[in-house]
Description:
By secondary structure, this protein is α+β, with helices and mostly antiparallel strands. 25% of the residues lie in helices and 35% in strands. The chain has 4 helices and 7 strands, in the order βααβββαβαββ. It has helices at 20-30, 41-47, 95-109, 125-131; strands at residues 11-14, 53-59, 68-75, 78-86, 114-120, 135-145, 151-160. The longest helix is centred in the middle third of the chain and has 15 residues, at 95-109.
Amino acid sequence: MASFPTPRTICIERGGYDDLDAVMRLMTAAFDPAFGEAWNRGQCAGILPMRGVHLALVRPSEDAPPAGFALWRTLLDESELLLLAVDPAAQGEGFGRMLLDHFVEQSKSAGANRLHLEVRDGNRAVHFYEQAGFRIAGRRRDYYRGADGERRDALTYIKLD
């Protein structure tokens, strides 16, 4: 008799202040400190109560710890993806795409027709965002400062609907 894998129930849920430990764990795992992209706990805690800010967590099953998160802010007709991270152990399973799609859907539902994000030049996520329809809008020279003191450019992206 053939054995088939049991389908997973992947959950995307709204997060909040109580999820900061999980967010920080994921950010530490996903962001290499050499590049200076990660936020600290104070930055995350400070933005969560602001108007229009949303945190989404993805879990591989209802009782599993989060495998990734997305943090964004929507104001009027614009929405900016502030952070997106997936645990390296869970990368390649579609969680990043689910979070990005969720950001796009939720932003559109809130009335946003201009979606923005920023990513370090050279980050492998550049291709991921371009595949999702984001187009380069600009460059911020020497924006990121890594642990090694080296500065790296930020690329700004936009998606119009």
